[in-house]
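Structure tokens please, single chain.
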Amino acid sequence: MKTHAPQMDDQDFDITPMIDVVFLLIVFFMVVAAEITEKIEVELPQADKAVVPEEIGPRMEVSITEEGKIYVGMVPVDLQQLGTRVGTGNNEIAGFKVFVRADERTPHKYVNDVMKACAENGVLDVIFATFEQK
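Here you go.
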């Protein structure tokens, strides 16, 4: 019985699907990186003895604008929602901190309200963002 052997002349590897996947991964990481680096624009105050903490640890970034609007990351929240998020983070993550980025022209009552919401939900470690004065 005579068998038919397949032709062996087409041995090229098709890399088109691999190029498509790599391109999609690049686009995905570019979009994610853009979302991560976006922040609410605030003018940070200057401090004589500003220090960058050596251990960052798990933290929630809270921004307060000059008008007193509060944002967790890029999401606007009110004080009740902030308290809920801070409480959840504190219950789920050991060593949880709140990183406050307040505009230098923000009235202190708004900063005090944020600090009070953190304290009421068990977070006593609040870090303030400043620029080092030169």
